[in-house]
Amino acid sequence: MRIFIAGGTGVLGRPLVEVLVGQGHEVTASTHRSGNLSVIEAIGARPALMNGLDEAAVRQAVLDAGPDVIINQITALSTPARDYAQWLEMTNRLRSEGTRTLMAAAHEAGTRRVIAQSASFMTQPTGPGPTDESTPLYLDAPEPMRTHVRANVAAETLVLETPGIDGVVLRYGFLYGLGTAIGPGGEWVTAIESGDLPIVGEGAGQYPLVHVRDAVAAAVQAVDRGSPGIYNVVGDEPAAQAEWLPYLAELLGAPAPRRVSEEEAEAQIGVQAVYYGNQLRAASNARAKAELGLNLEYPSWREGFRQLFS
């Protein structure tokens, strides 16, 4: 099968390329850095130099590859930024403008299936039980969260509603593992070690953590399994901030996390700290298990953290 991976050298893209090449697929992987072309070749894929916002480059790369399946893993989240809105700005454009360009190219190339990355942690903060794929989204969130949620929704709509293409949206949880913010040397780990990542309020926010290896496995499964639609790709065990932060701090030998009020968190960090830390609802992975055959290597974040940091 011919598969085009947009964003083929990122935290998810590179291991995804390796797995699909190992399965015998003809893989083309894109990168926007010329220095990564040799990396893609070294793992057995065909490289394509492509800026996700360059309409002509995207079109040419996709038409040259002629893929049966496209997997879109492009983000601009790997570079930390102190300002949350600034950090999300390029990813928001890639989700809205970039997805429009990619889907147009996919339609022109005769691609039959597109799998795209989104987020499971953008639902309304109130409601009963765990969220699922039908839970209303936080479209009226305070800025800068609102713009990010709406960019994700725009991308999801394009993937699901482009004529002639089976669109699959994978709403990942918070990734942890090598190369992520919650991995050795990662931004969040460094903040925990220095005592700079606090528990907000009661720390009741239920983080839908998912190991990188399980996120990659879900994308591999989605190549030829599951009906078109949206799937939450998260672990089995939601992680309250008041539980996972002290747990990880202890594994790291770091000081116990300090506590701040919601008002302090909003003033010091931003509104997103309040939402994630004290309001986020747990997410269900039942549909991904039933339809994609999601079989988690790390169903519990506790075990995943132990293996990663002990």
Low-confidence stretches: none
Number of DSSP strand runs: 13
What general outline do the C-alpha atoms trace?
globular
Strand order of the largest sheet: 3-2-1-4-5-6-11
Order of helices and strands: EHEHEHEHEHEEHEEEHEEHEHHHH
Q: What value does the average pLDDT take? A: 96
- Radius of gyration (Å): 19 Å
The major β-sheet equals: 7 strands, parallel
Measured by DSSP, the beta-strand proportion falls in 15-25%
**Number of helical regions:** 12
Query: Would you tell me the structural class of the helices and strands?
Result: alpha/beta
- The CA-CA distance between the termini, in Å, is 39 Å
| Share of residues in helices | 40-55%
Explain this structure.
This protein has 310 residues and is α/β, with parallel strands linked by helices. The chain has 12 helices and 13 strands. The chain has helices spanning 13-22, 37-42, 55-65, 84-109, 145-161, 187-193, 212-222, 241-252, 262-268, 271-279, 286-292, 301-309, and strands at 2-6, 26-31, 46-49, 69-72, 113-119, 166-172, 174-176, 199-200, 206-207, 209-211, 229-233, 239-240, 259-260. A 7-stranded parallel beta sheet has the order 3-2-1-4-5-6-11, with helices on both faces. A two-stranded parallel ribbon has the order 7-10. The chain has a two-stranded parallel sheet with strand order 8-13. Helix 1 (13-22) crosses helix 7 (212-222), helix 3 crosses helix 4 (84-109) and helix 9 runs antiparallel to helix 10. The chain is globular, with a radius of gyration of 19 Å. The N and C termini lie far apart (39 Å).
